[in-house]
Specification:
By secondary structure, the protein is an alpha/beta fold. The protein is built from eight helices and nine strands.
């Protein structure tokens, strides 16, 4: 495998599958199978999941929620998703541990870099829920932060889109996908890879990012093996 330790960011919205809300057991099972295959190859995995399939803080503001309360509700949504993925992984025979950035024993252990590394080195898949534990920060930022903290070789951003394009491929049929692109060019072009806080964390700490389609089963293993899947964003 090309990468020995990865931070995998999963989209909360992707967990809905074809549903308008909630969790798809089919998507969870597909993700669990892909993660199992990578974990069995000896790669160390830490995972951060979004919460948009249940609650998104910014959308809550539009419905009258205080932003801080809305973001806290979103953090709890990521922990629900983390528990769901842990359950799916355990059904596949994978040892998985949920660490939370907010104290929430016995639902999950309190996150620390040392504990995450200890579990990963013991062969467990570590799922970090609760975002950064602070409002005004996205789960992309939490992913970048955890990726830097655990000294991951790469951050893999698994989405429903198969990479970074010159424009939104759903709106512009002439949009072209990049095989690789620099952080500076992404910024200069104003492309939406992730929010600027997350993007800057990755750039300043030289953490490369690969954006790829996680919903095509087998893609995760191909990315980790070094195949040209998705778009590589790097220095």
């Amino acid at each position: 495998m090309k990468y020995k330790r990865i931070l995998l960011k999963l989209s909360g919205e992707s967990l809905m599958g074809g549903q308008p809300y909630g969790l798809s057991t089919d998507v969870l099972a597909s993700y669990a199978r892909q993660i199992r295959a990578v974990a069995e190859s000896g790669v160390q995995l830490a995972i951060v999941i979004g919460g948009g399939n249940i609650f998104r803080g910014l959308s809550g503001v539009n419905r009258g929620f205080d932003r801080v309360k809305g973001d806290q509700m979103g953090m709890l949504a990521t922990i629900i998703n983390s528990l769901a993925l842990q359950s799916a992984l355990e059904s596949e025979g994978v040892k998985a541990r949920v660490l939370t950035s907010i104290r929430m024993e016995p639902i999950g252990e309190y996150y620390s870099k040392a504990r995450a590394l200890e579990c990963m080195r013991a062969g467990e898949v570590v799922i970090v829920g609760g975002g950064t534990s602070n409002p005004f920060f996205s789960t992309d930022t939490a992913s970048a932060l955890r990726g830097v903290e655990v000294e991951a070789d790469v951050m893999l951003k698994g989405t429903r889109v198969d990479g970074v394009y010159t424009a939104d491929p759903e709106k512009d049929p002439a949009a072209v996908r990049f095989d690789e692109i620099s952080f500076d060019e992404v910024y200069a072009r104003g492309l939406k890879v992730m929010d600027l806080t997350a993007f800057t964390l990755c750039k300043e700490n030289r953490l490369p990012v690969i954006v790829f389609d996680m919903d095509t089963e087998g893609n995760l293993g191909k990315v980790v093996a070094g195949e040209k899947i998705g778009t590589l964003v790097h220095e």
